[in-house]
Amino acid sequence: MFGERLRRARTATGLSMSKLGALVGLSANAIKKYEHGENMPGSDNLLKLSKALGVRVEYFFRESKVQLEQIEFRKRASTPKKLLAMVHGDVTEQAERWVELLDLYPDSIKPIPEFALPVGLPEVISSLTEVEEVAEFVRLKWELGLNPISEMIDTLESKGVLIIRTAVESGHKVDGLAGSIGKTPVVVVSTHSSGDRQRFTLAHELGHLVLHGRLAEGLDEEKACNRFAGAFLLPKSGVLQHLGTFRRHLELQELYLLKHEFGLSMLGVVMRAHQCAVIGNDLHKRWCVDFSKKGYKKSEPGEPYPQEETILFKQLIYRALGEGYIGESKAAELLSLSLSSLYKERMLGAMGESTD
To answer: Which of 186, 222, 220 lies closest to 202 in space, CA to CA?
Structure first.
C-alpha cells in the first residue's frame, strides 16, 4: 500500500525519483525501493516525504477505495502525458477523500443527492436545434428558468455531481476532465482557468451526461455538447432579448456586458448570436478572425469573469464533525490541515475565545 501511494503522490507533483530524493536527502534508488515495497522509510524520512509531497503522513496509509472510470480530459492534443498524470493523481487523491468522507456518514443519511437525469428526455436527438431544446428542457425541469445561472458549481452539486477543482498548473492545456465513481458523475475544473471557461467546461460535461447515447448517427457528440453548453448558459430567449432578432454589427461592450451577466465568454456570445441567426456568417467570421488576431481567444479584454468556488466538501466535513461522525484528527486529515490549523479555522481564528 505504502509504495503505491508514494508513487501516486510523487506522480501528482510531477517529481522524478531523483528530484524527490534530492528534496529529502535520499538517493533515487532509495525512493525506488520504497515504491517497490522493498524498504520502508523511518519516521524522519516519512515526515520529509510528507512535507516534500504536500500530503499528511496519514495519506500514505489510507486504503484506496476509489476507481475513477470513464475518464475524459478536456485538453489540447499537445498536452504532455506527464501533465495528464499529474492532474489524474491530484484528482484521484481528492476523490478518495470525498469517498472516505461520504462513507463516514451513517447509512440513514445521504449528504449529497443521487444523480438523476430529468424525466422526459427524448430518446433520439437528431439535430443541433434539438440539442438547444434539450438544454432548455433541462433548465426548466431543474427549475432554473431562462435567466442567468449565478452558480454553475452549486447547481450541479445540488443535482448530485461531484465537482473537484485541481490546482495543477497546466498552462491552459487542460481545462478539466470528467469521469465517474460508481454511479456518481465527477467533473473537474482547473483553478487556473477563467470563470467563464470553468462554467463552459461544467456545462459541456453536463451535456455529455445528458446527450450520451441519445444522438442520432452522424451527429458529433463534442459539437453537440458545445452547443448544449452555450444554450444552457445563454438560452435563445436571452440572446434575442439582449441583442434583438437581427444585427448588422455588434459592439464589444455589448459582448462584455453579456459575458458578465451570463458567465459565457465574449466569443461564446458571438457564437450564440450566430447560432440563433441574430448575425450572419460574414459578421460571425469577422469576429472570430478579429479575436484570433488580437489574442482574445486566450485572454479576453476587460475584467475577467470571476471563478466559482466549491464549499460542499468542507461544509460536509464540519457537519460530520459537529454531529460527531468524525473527530478532529480525521477532519484535519480530510482537510489536509494540521490540528492547530484546524482549530484556528474551526474557531474562525479566535484562538482565545470559547464557544461555550
So the answer is: 186
- The DSSP code sequence of 255-290 is HHHHHHHH---HHHHHHHHHHTTSS-HHHHHHHHHH
Q: Are 251 and 261 in contact (CB under 8 A)?
A: no
Question: pLDDT tens for residues 198-225?
Answer: 999 999 999 999 999 999 999 999 999 9
Residue 58's Cβ-count burial label (10 Å; 0-12, 13-18, 19+) is middle
Asked whether 157 and 186 are in contact (CB, 8 A), the reply is no
208 domain residue, yes or no: no
CATH number of 15's domain: 1.10.260.40
Whole-angstrom CA distances from 18 to 13, 39, 88 are 13, 17, 21
Specify the pLDDT at position 356. 47
How high does pLDDT run on average in the chain? 90
Confidence (pTM): 0.84
71 pLDDT higher than 50 = yes
Query: Does a structural domain hold residue 88?
Result: no
CA–CA gap between residue 325 and residue 96 (Å, rounded): 18
Q: Considering the domain boundaries, does residue 126 fall inside one? A: no
| Cell numbers describing residue 285 | 467570421
DSSP assigned state of 194:
-
**For the chain, what is the domain count?**
1
The helix (H) or strand (E) run that includes residue 243 is helix 236-243
Q: Which residues of 26-44 are buried (b: 16+ CB within 10 A; e: fewer)?
A: beeebbbbbbeeebebeee
* Cβ partners under 8 Å of residue 324, min gap 6: none
Domain assignment present for residue 313? The answer is no
Helix (H) or strand (E) holding 174: strand 174-181
Range of the domain at 19: 1-63
Alpha carbon 141 to its chain centroid, in Å, reads 23
Whether 36 shows a pLDDT value over 60: the answer reads yes
